[in-house]
Amino acid sequence: MKSASAEVGQMQTPALFLPDARPPRLTEEAKKAIRALAAFLHEDRPDPEDLTQAYQTAVRLAGSEVEPRVVYGLILLKGRDRQKALSHFEQLRTDQPELWLAPQSLAWLRFSLRAYQAGVDELVQMVLRLPKPKTASAPWPEDLRNLFTWAGQLREFAAEGQETRQVSPESLQKLDAAVADCGEEPTQFYQQGREKTRSKLRDFDKQLFEASDKATKLKIRIDRRQLSYFASFPFTDATQRVLAGMDR
User: Fold this and answer.
1) Could you give the CA distance from residue 207 to residue 185 in angstroms, rounded to a whole number?
2) Which of 33, 81, 38 minimizes the C-alpha distance to 241?
3) Given this model, what pLDDT does residue 163 score?
């Protein structure tokens, strides 16, 4: 004979599942306009008028959604007008404080302008905004694992890539602590990024030791301070992430 509790456990309550009647966040026309805007990322020198028109069209069709502003910011970031890109992402960070792509982009801009202290501070803000997995044992998405590696590369470049210290130890420790708070897996990728930069610095130092003339030594010292030898901005990953998120 079954117990009363077993009977209750086996009872099934009928449920009515209604279709989601909410309109899509972005219309197909808006998505098409955003993809058209993103295509400018593949052009070395986009026509300013065409770019402006594509951006305005995407904004008009997307309404208050953030995708056009993010994609346009990435185009500015890839271009040569760094001050315009800075202003754009600073405003975007203010308007969308949860958007970690804004401090990521600002970090890259600060590093490109050799403002390494400000760049490290932006990396801290980026890490603090990252969405953590729901459980401690859940793996981080691949794009975010790559992001921790990238942050480690920049961190070590700021700390060791210059002949004079330009970043406070406290800021570096704050970044290290923010990553450690994300868990063991992110910390491992972060350390891998740091080691990548250390390895590249060791290569430069070996070349410098083996160089026999002043001109060669000078070029090596200059190259050792160039960010482009150590890291690059992940434009493809960032753009794909934005476009993939349009359906959410």
Assistant:
1) 34
2) 38
3) 65
Tell me the Cα Rg of the chain: 23
CA distance 159 to 168: 9
149 has a pLDDT exceeding 50: yes
Which band of pLDDT confidence, cut at 50, 70 and 90, is reported for residue 23? Answer: low
Q: Are 91 and 102 in contact (CB under 8 A)?
A: no
User: Position of tokens 């859940």?
Assistant: 138
| Average pLDDT for 68-81 | 94
How far is Cα 58 from Cα 48, in angstroms, rounded to an integer? 15
* Best CA proximity match to 60, nearest among 91, 89, 29: 29
CB 239, CB 71: distance < 8 Å: yes
Nearest C-alpha neighbor of 37 from the set 80, 82, 68: 68
- 53-90 b/e with 16+ CB inside 10 Å = b? ebbebbbebbeebbbbbbbbbbbbbbbeeeeebbebbe
Helix (H) or strand (E) holding 174: helix 169-180
Q: What is the distance between the alpha carbons of residues 201 and 205, in angstroms, rounded to a whole number? A: 6
Can you list the positions of beta strands (E) in 3-155?
A: none
Q: What Cα–Cα distance (Å) separates residue 80 from each residue in 51, 104, 112, 238? A: 14, 18, 11, 19
